[in-house]
Design a protein that fits this description.
single chain; 67 residues; mainly alpha; two-stranded antiparallel ribbon; globular
Length: 67
């Protein structure tokens, strides 16, 4: 699964979160969150679990592009 970057950026704007805040809520480093947002990191277990932890109210099929 590949993170839906458009949705992620919209959620960050909507909630007023920075990349650092996203990283904190995902339980990953800022560098890891930045790679995710830049599109250089795809959906491994750490990414999938972190995004689901950060956005528990957002459906998985909205957070990720299903291949």
């Amino acid at each position: 699964m590949k993170p839906n970057r458009d949705v992620l950026y919209a959620l960050l704007r909507e909630r007023g979160w920075s990349g650092s805040e996203l990283a904190r809520r995902m339980g990953v480093s800022r560098a890891e969150a930045n790679r995710l947002l830049a599109g250089t990191r795809e959906g491994g277990k750490k990414c999938i679990g972190g995004l689901m932890k950060a956005f528990p109210d957002v459906p998985v099929d909205k957070l990720f592009l299903m291949k």
